[in-house]
Amino acid sequence: MTKPLRIALAGLGTVGGGVVRLLDTNAALIARRAGRPIEIVAVSARDRAKDRGVDLSRFEWVDDATALASHPNADVVVELIGGSDGPALTLARATLSAGKGFVTANKAMIAHHGLELARAAEQAEAALKFEAAVAGGIPVIKGLREGAAANEIARVYGILNGTCNFILSKMEAEGRDFSEVLAEAQALGFAESDPTFDIDGIDAAHKLSILSSIAFGTQPAFGGVVASGIRHVIAADIAEAAALGYRIRLIGIAEDGPHGLFQRVHPHLVPVSHPLAHVTGATNAVVAEGNFVGRLLFQGAGAGDGPTASAVVADLIDIARGEYGPAFAMPADALAEHQPADAGERRARAYVRFTVADKVGVLAEIAAAMRDAGVSIESLIQRGSGGEDGSVLVAIVTHEGPERSVAQALEKLRGSQSLTGQPMWMHILG
Fold this sequence. Notes:
The protein has 13 helices and 18 strands. By secondary structure, it is α/β, with parallel strands linked by helices. The model has no long low-confidence stretch (mean pLDDT 94).
């Protein structure tokens, strides 16, 4: 029998348990597809006594995860610990230094240290694979790195965080406000007890920087991603968007051009005619636009033990076959270093919502600020007649124009006594 690919697994949480179950359940099929069996020989986690619903007694237990890198019987280390630094990064460096393959689902570590690790992998002639780091079980990294390799990618964008998409689509379906739906998402396990990384767009920004590097052949540039999340979206925004023919989604978008690399995660109004408008629940979807292949849409479960484990094991099958190349689709030294593009020069339509005092002259003040900043207003709508605090909502949709102009208009209104809340600015996907 062909020698098996032997795995050391660090991290036995939801995904780690899923990897063990998948390798057990589909062992024969995986061996046929990989050309040889794939077997776990050692594992490591913080709590040896915890019941994870799988039989771990057949594997050697290693208390110090870093020691897996030098395990004499392991060919590949799978890291499912998480975190951009700390034990995960130490294990990655040690594994690649030992010349062993390294597979991870750790988006934060790849976003922050991917270039360093890619160089180490090339120097050691070892595999560095991270399909599970972006969009769970959706093979978007493989699709960009291999299937679309011959194409110049103009733009990559999509719904990269299932928690935010669950919250927004739930608000949309039931007319409820953000805080209430967030609490439900936490109760159901779709959101962490501290949901900051998800709802403020940081998780999506990690994923976007990885996709951007692969799509455009640039060095991973997480620091260049401008990220904001959905915590200030209210039910009235959802309703107003629907009335205008849009749905609100948190969109990560990246473009590379002569003026630099543009990367942003921000709530967008998405036309109901666009495929992303129909992505609901905790689903991810990524669109890539190639100059020969056209528009590609990758959609599916973006998290969970099964989908993420599926991506991890797909990477292991590639390694078992000997099918792996540069981590970011080209050698690390060929990845271009780009400066962040100036978002102010981008031309787009925008939705801006104000909470204002219900009094004479407020609309004129807002319109004047827009006029003075050079913003052309397509529509201006006031909803309500004043609540208990005497405030109403005013929503503006602009014509296409420089984003800098909208920013200048909002700056002119900063500190206005007419505004009773912070304005909400969302871009319109187009």
